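Hi F.,

I've been meaning to write this up properly since the lab meeting, where we talked about keeping a consistent format for the predictions we share between groups. The idea is simple: the sequence comes first, exactly as it goes in, then the structure tokens exactly as they come out, then a line or two of notes. No screenshots and no reformatting. I'm using this chain as the first example so we have something concrete to point to.
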Amino acid sequence: MTTTERAMVVHQQEPYNAEPPRSALAESVVTPVGVFYGRNHGTMPRIEPQDWRLQVDGMVDRPLELSLADLKDRFAHREVVATLQCAGNRRAGLMAVRDIPGQHPWGPGATSTARWGGVSLADVLAAAGLQPGATDIAFAAPDVAPEASPPQTYGASISVAKATAGETMLVWEMNGEPLPVAHGGPVRVVVPGHIGARSVKWVERITAQGRPSDNFFQTSAYRLLPADTDLSRTRVGDGFPLTAVALNSDILRPDDHAVLPSGPTRVLGYAYAGDDRGISRVDVSVDGGRSWQQAELEADLGPWAWRFWHATVGLPAGEVTITARAWDTTAALQPEHPESVWNPKGYINNAWPTVTVTACDAVA
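Output, unedited:
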């Protein structure tokens, strides 16, 4: 077992699903590749970069077949620092409210940030002659997902407006290095501000069309359902598709159940708002929300990346629950209780995060 594997919280080996612990995620505002979370629905395909081809078709005037060399030679190289966040991030907090069978108990680490390098999807669609009647851009990958009904390769779609925005990219670099297979290499889509499920890995086909993708993961899987839904009775298209990431945050230090000296303690975490919303404020409480102090926001990496924040709080002796809450630039505030956002698939837990620690006058 490698050091990286020891650092990860592995929810499933095949297909591989894992997240870093809080302490690893806290080490750097740009997440090292080795501890970037992994979310997969099927076995990772292994495609040699020189063999990879991308088909661009559908409602375009000039269908394209592009190699990796074509992408590098024909289009301007771009970079974006962007956070990807799984729709199931912090699901464990919803499972504590009510069981969610058949789902991974993701903690706060199903989110990570990287510097992505590649080309703008808008440039590729322009070269193909995107037709005015197209409303959606669908992505298809080769990894087969047994959980899909019927079993099928992974796919998703986004609106034409998001696809032609400058931040949406086809990338082959991650933190300045070639994109690893585990994170979608040779080439993946990165859709900043949207849930990670729309940033399709190992992308092989891009289709412009007049409707959303009919892939299982667009029509059935990544959809938010009402709390009283009977999953045995759901139909294709029930609920609504998840797109932009909801305002969210979590505490990375100290860890939950840590034993600490009483007195001044540094608290560190992340906050993130999807689309191009920024983080305007983070507050921290050690008395159940009766009083709050404002945290200091750390470096702003741009409109598509999380903000780290920190605060020094005074811990009284005994068991203490530290709570955080974030506000975005539209003045939206995270919901207070996980009960209010519980849903039968465990998506989008963006309730106030907490960690409970024991503060002692002296720590052995």
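Notes:
The chain has a mean pLDDT of 96.
The two ends are 31 Å apart (CA to CA).

If this format works for you, I'll send the rest the same way.

G.
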